């Protein structure tokens, strides 16, 4: 094998193991309120992807702080607010949602992220659907 091929292979293996695949990803949120006539389908971006983690097989020997795993989470984000159509006057027809601008691998912050995996997916509409255009 040539020296260039070996060096390229070593560089690829090293860089591939240290880089993450955590990035903003397109996602559709379905929002509805019981009082409102429509379900709103909102296209946004969320943080999704793979982050390198540590093997915690030795968890009895390690400190609790060493056991936390990195997750793909927001680095920069902003909130946008939309109006849910078909709501009566006595309800608040606004819904705010996050838009990921950039992502990072890090600790999950429960102030703005759901750090557990849902077993039941409820991201669908039960009412007639309207699409949000921003």
From TrEMBL:
Oligomer and partners: Heterodimer of a common alpha chain and a unique beta chain which confers biological specificity to thyrotropin, lutropin, follitropin and gonadotropin.
UniProt key word DNA repair: no
Pfam families noted in UniProt: Cys_knot
Family matches, as SUPFAM superfamilies: Cystine-knot cytokines (SSF57501)
UniProt keywords, alphabetically: Disulfide bond, Glycoprotein, Hormone, Secreted, Signal
Superkingdom in the source lineage: Eukaryota
Signal sequence bounds: 1-16
Family as reported in the entry's similarity comment: Belongs to the glycoprotein hormones subunit beta family.
Glycoprotein hormone subunit beta domain: residues covered: 20-125
Name of the molecule in the record: Thyrotropin subunit beta
Gene Ontology MF terms in the entry: hormone activity
Coiled coil: none
InterPro entries reported in the protein's UniProt record: Cystine-knot_cytokine, Glyco_hormone_CN, Gonadotropin_bsu, Gonadotropin_bsu_CS
Keyword Secreted attached: yes
């Amino acid at each position: 094998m040539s020296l260039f091929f070996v060096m390229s292979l070593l560089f690829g293996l090293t860089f591939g193991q240290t880089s993450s695949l955590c990035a903003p990803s397109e996602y559709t949120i379905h929002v509805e309120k019981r009082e409102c006539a429509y379900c709103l389908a909102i296209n946004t971006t969320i943080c999704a992807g793979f982050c390198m983690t540590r093997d915690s097989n030795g968890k009895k020997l390690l400190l609790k702080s060493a056991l936390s795993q990195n997750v793909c989470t927001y680095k920069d984000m902003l909130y946008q607010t939309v109006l849910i159509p078909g709501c009566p006057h006595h309800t608040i027809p606004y819904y705010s949602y996050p838009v990921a601008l950039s992502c990072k691998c890090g600790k999950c912050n429960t102030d703005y992220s759901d750090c557990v995996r849902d077993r039941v997916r409820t991201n669908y509409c039960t009412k007639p659907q309207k699409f949000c255009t921003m």
